[in-house]
């Protein structure tokens, strides 16, 4: 199982971090050890003073595929979810400044929250998914998959050029604007429409 993550997929998030808009999806991986275990708090790692939340729509792959054509991509997933890509922003900035990979800032233990899953058939349009993140009961991120630069089926087509997709793989599709720092005792809740998808405490 692998977690395939997409960066810079929402224009406003690109602007808030003052990044360059990419010509192709920005792709990085997280190992399965980065998955936060169910009912466990998120512990801020001791190597960072600036860990950010990034809420994202998730897609769970249901069959093996390689070089998947966009028109067939919808057959490769049945479930939509919501999660968090935790990022040690200070460490990421240091690594980016040196032209080094991001893994230490993105792929540490517990850096991937995976919430509940919703059958795709229960969602009217996967390209119009309304989702949000609350921190201490205040909405801090509010997004819609219609604002993705690359939609879900496009991402599956693109990613499958480079990686064979296997059953159980999860694609993190990118985060909208509004990312921010977490501190101890924060409570984070993610929603698709008004359905709570996850709830975690920061330690």
Globally, the shape reads: globular
CATH architecture: Alpha-Beta Complex
CATH topology group? Fumarylacetoacetate hydrolase, domain 2
Characterize the biggest β-sheet: 6 strands, mixed
Biggest sheet: strands side by side, in what order? Answer: 2-1-10-4-5-7
- Domain count: 1
Characterise the protein shown here.
This protein has 203 residues and is α+β, with helices and mostly antiparallel strands. The protein has a single domain, classed as Alpha-Beta Complex (Fumarylacetoacetate hydrolase, domain 2), CATH 3.90.850.10. Helices cover 15% and strands 34% of the residues. It has 4 helices and 13 strands. The strands form 3 sheets. Strands 2-1-10-4-5-7 form a 6-stranded mixed sheet, covered by helices on one side.
SSE map:
Layout: E1 3-7, H1 11-16, E2 26-30, E3 51-53, E4 55-61, E5 77-85, E6 87-88, H2 89-97, H3 103-106, E7 112-119, E8 130-135, E9 138-144, H4 152-162, E10 170-172, E11 180-181, E12 187-192, E13 195-201
Parallel strand pairs: 1-10
Antiparallel strand pairs: 1-2, 3-6, 3-11, 4-5, 4-10, 5-7, 8-9, 8-12, 12-13
């Amino acid at each position: 199982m692998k977690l395939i993550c997409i960066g810079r997929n929402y224009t406003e998030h690109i602007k808030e971090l003052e990044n360059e808009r990419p010509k192709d999806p920005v792709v990085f991986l997280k190992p399965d050890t980065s998955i936060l275990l169910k009912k466990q708090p998120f512990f801020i790692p001791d190597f960072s003073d600036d860990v950010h939340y990034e809420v994202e729509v998730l897609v769970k792959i249901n069959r093996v595929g390689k070089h998947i054509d966009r028109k067939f991509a919808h057959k490769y997933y049945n479930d939509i979810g919501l999660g968090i890509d935790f990022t040690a922003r200070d460490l990421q900035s240091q690594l980016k400044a040196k032209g080094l990979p991001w893994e230490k800032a993105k792929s540490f233990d517990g850096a991937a929250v995976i919430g509940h899953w919703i059958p795709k058939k229960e969602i009217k349009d996967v390209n119009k998914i309304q989702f949000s993140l609350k921190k201490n009961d205040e909405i801090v991120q509010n997004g819609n998959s219609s604002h993705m630069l690359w939609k879900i089926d496009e991402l599956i087509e693109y990613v499958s050029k480079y990686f064979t997709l296997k059953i159980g793989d999860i694609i993190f599709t990118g985060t909208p604007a509004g990312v921010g720092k977490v501190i101890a005792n924060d409570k984070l809740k993610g929603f698709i429409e008004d359905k709570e998808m996850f709830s975690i405490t920061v330690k």
